[in-house]
Amino acid sequence: FDAFERETIAQYRASPAFNKTCKLSDPKPLPDGFAMAMDCTGARTILTYRFSKDLVAETQENLIIARPEYSSKILTLSRRTGACPGQPAGKPL
Q1: Helix (H) or strand (E) segment spanning residue 8
Q2: Which tens digits make up the pLDDT trace of 9-23?
Q3: What is the rounded distance in angstroms from the CA atom of residue 12 to the CA atom of residue 22?
Q4: Are 35 and 25 in contact (CB under 8 A)?
Q5: Cα separations (Å) of 78 from 37, 50, 58, 61?
């Protein structure tokens, strides 16, 4: 997941539109992934990525500063179904 982390951070930092209104934190390493925060005008978003063998769990916490009651937390699960280059094929679902 190190390559995914580097690519994700690089994409945010390379975006002029994002950098005009938001500030990206340095990624915080976790035992099974990483987390980062985006401080934008009026809101803060915390993205957490956790990796296991064939699963990625992304949690997105959107904190609305002026109206915390409208804040949200979204969990997205992604499962790998194909083989990565150079790796043997996994079992079909």
Answers
A1: helix 2-13
A2: 999 999 999 999 999
A3: 10
A4: no
A5: 21, 11, 8, 17
Token representation of residue 79: 């499962």
Rounded Cα distance between 45 and 26, Å, is: 13
Pairing state between β 43-51 and 72-79: unpaired
Q: How far apart are CA 84 and CA 80, in angstroms?
A: 9
Least Cα distance to 79 among 71, 90, 88 occurs for 90
CB atoms within 10 A of CB 33: 20
Q: What is the pLDDT of residue 34?
A: 95
Pull the structure tokens for residue 93. Answer: 């679902």
